[in-house]
Amino acid sequence: MFLSLCPSGHKVVFLSGTCSGHVGIEHGREIYWLSGSKETWNQESADTVCQQMHCGNASRFSFNSKADMINKVWKNSFSCSSRKKSLFECNQTTPLPPDHHNSTAYVNCSGNIKMRLTNSCWGKVRIRVEEKEGDMCADTWTEDKSVKLCEKLNCGTPIKAHNSPKDGDILFKSLHPTNQTTDLTQSIFVKNQDNDNSCKQKPAYVVCSGSVKPRFSIPSYKCFGNVEVEYEGKWIPVCEDALKDTNNGNTICQELKCGDAVETLPYFGPAPAEKLAISNLNCIANANSPLSACSSITASTAACKHSGLRCSEWRTMVPDKKACSGTVLVHWRQGLSAVSRENFNETEKEKLCQDMDCGGYQSTNEIHPQTIEIDSFWNKSFSCGENPGSIWECENKTTPSRKEPVFIECKKEPSVSLSQGCHGEVRIDGVPVCASNWDLSYAHKVCQEKLCGNAVFIESKAPSKGSGNIYHVSCEKYHSIIGKCRRTKGKCDTNVVFITCSESVKFRTTEKHGGVLYVNYRDKWERVCPFRAEEKEYVQNLPAKLCEEINNETHSSSTEDKQVNLETTLEFTDVTMDIKRSVNQRSCGNVSPAEILCYVPETPTPPTPTRP
Q: How confident is the model at residue 194 (pLDDT cuts 50, 70, 90)?
């Protein structure tokens, strides 16, 4: 600290307030007060003190008695002229003049001292005095001063900074709080002189916890999704370990008016460009306690698994028919509720279409029949003002009286396709889909929508064209088609999705009526693992089913070596009784491949003709 650099006999002048108050003198560790003598405490002396404190000139000065100060009056009084820069340069009177009346000097200065951070609750420490503003030198700044400044600004407590600036406009070399200081602006400020190189021109930089606040990354999905925290002006992700603690999750959900935390969710979308993430939180959940009040908030560049949250008040809007048209429904924790037509006009429909990535609203005069049975209506109505962030910012507390559902039809309907009919690269509007976060249930949705059965195989491959701005997809259980799922574009750190649907699976054998069984489900013919004993009952009916599917062209000579490392099997369950849907990738090692014999009906012998 600045104090430790000063000799024990060093004296400093201070005021009991910011640019006003009783005039004090700190000597060593002792505090004294300046005598209020009429002879010496005049305009010139008062101006000198104000100027020494960087507070302009004295607008009013006086002297008065305070019992706790009288016993600690400084042994000398000072008589100043306007040319003096410090009270200690003025003429001293010893002993005290007889008219000091056991009173102490008081002054109100014309100027003021203000301290702030460049971005409200974080940034460079800025000080404004005498109509000038500049930075504080970092070399003399301490953690204790950061605590006092965050408290003064109602910004919580200091947290670790990661992006402190390298240079600044240094106006003050140091500030020196006294034992009487309750506010940093009451300190003694030492200006940075042009010829003084003791400061390395690096400004003091503070991040207070009050600058930290949470949000969900996609506003149209209310109260669930990726959690992001504003930290030093950037929105950064949160590590899964930090969200596993129930108190931490509840604090975030409650601050966002989303109830309590229900579960953590996998991170959705491209990896953030910023490596920084919130690695540690220590919160005590309280309805009135925001994230900024947590006792520990730590950001780190160490690699971690990012995560999201689902809160108890989660909800989203999805049409019942297609991805971008149909009766508007709210999916929430208690099921489905229709949205009332009351006040849900073109402005609200336009916002909803944009939120769903469906282009704008398509006006239509057609009367749309109700296609589903509606048990309940959402208990709030919607009215969008100017530039809402999402349809949920249009929600108000008014309960709608009309029990007629909204029907919406947007301009754009996402087109989901496979590059080769019933198998190949998955695409949405011609754009590939990233394999991260992809799930077998998603593949089933694609195959079913394309009338290709169910998915039997998923793999990731390098994209056929471009890997930069491609789709990331995340589906919920209530999403019946891929177009309704959450999707966003961005860089893909893995490959893209290729799937095989059951309708593209083909079988053949080595001989015209049987032999070694081959299957083609990943763009090559391959032999099949032998059937297991537990499938004996189904295998009895297998030849008849397979023979219906087999192309009678032979695949190869029956003299091939049957000892191979097999990677494909047919596995049958109550769900996969369809022979094409039973294909599964599973290694069974160096064994003899499966063989079948197709039944060939005997050709009846024609009767021998009789002689007439």
A: low
Tell me, yes or no, whether 286 and 381 share the same domain: no
The tokens of 263 are what? 């579960």
73 in Cβ contact with 100 (< 8 Å): yes
Query: Are 583 and 518 in a shared domain?
Result: yes
In a domain, 612, yes or no: no
Strands 20-27 and 11-15 turn out to be antiparallel
My answer on whether 304 and 221 are in the same domain is yes
Which among 173, 269, 165 has a CA at the least distance from the CA of 216? 269
In a domain, 225, yes or no: yes
Are 68 and 39 in a shared domain?
Answer: yes
Of residues 298, 305, 223, the one with CA closest to residue 272: 305
Check whether residue 141 and residue 192 sit in a common domain. yes
Q: 382 and 325 in contact (C-beta within 8 Å)?
A: no
> CA–CA distance from 138 to each of 132, 348, 543 (Å)?
19, 51, 83
Domain membership flag for residue 363: yes
> Domain holding 265: CATH number?
3.10.250.10
- Rounded Cα distance between 128 and 146, Å, is 17
Sign of the dihedral through C-alpha 283, 288, 291, 292? negative
Same domain, 518 and 582: yes
Higher pLDDT residue, 540 or 139? 139
CA–CA separation, 278 and 565 (whole Å): 47
Band of residue 403 on the pLDDT scale cut at 50, 70, 90 = confident
Query: Could you say which DSSP state residue 256 is in?
Result: T
- Asked if the structure places residue 358 within a domain, the reply is yes
Q: Output b/e per residue, 274-290; b: 16+ Cβ within 10 A.
A: eebbbbbbebebeeebb
For residues 35 and 100, membership in a common domain is answered with yes
Assigned token pair, 610: 């009789």
| CA pair distance 328, 407, nearest whole angstrom | 6
Q: What is the pLDDT of residue 15?
A: 93
For the chain, what is the domain count? 6
What does residue 300 show for φ and ψ, rounded to 5 degrees? -150, 155
* C-alpha–C-alpha distance, residues 79 and 81, integer Å: 7
Among 502, 524, 553, the domain-final residue is 502
Determine the Cα–Cα distance for residues 268 and 13; give it in Å rounded to an integer: 59
**What's the token pair of residue 160?**
């670790």
Amino acid letter, residue 189: F
pLDDT, one tens digit per residue, over 440-497 is: 999 999 999 999 999 999 999 887 665 678 999 999 988 999 999 999 999 888 899 9
User: What pLDDT was estimated at residue 465?
Assistant: 65
Q: Which domain holds residue 385?
A: 320-409
Distances from the Cα of 53 to the Cαs of 21, 70, 108, 352, in angstroms? 12, 23, 12, 59
Of the listed ranges 142-156, 469-483, 513-527, the one predicted with least confidence? 513-527
CB atoms within 10 A of CB 145: 22
CA angle at residue 222 from 221 to 223, to 5 degrees? 120
d(CA 311, CA 250): 8
Domain-ending residue, one of 74, 109, 144: 109
Which CATH number covers residue 526?
3.10.250
Q: How many residues does the chain have?
A: 612
For residues 270 and 295, membership in a common domain is answered with: yes
Would you say residue 559 has pLDDT above 60?
Answer: no
Spatial distance between the Cα atoms of 455 and 424, rounded to a whole number of angstroms = 11
Give start and end residues of each alpha helix (H) in 3-153. 43-52, 67-70, 143-152
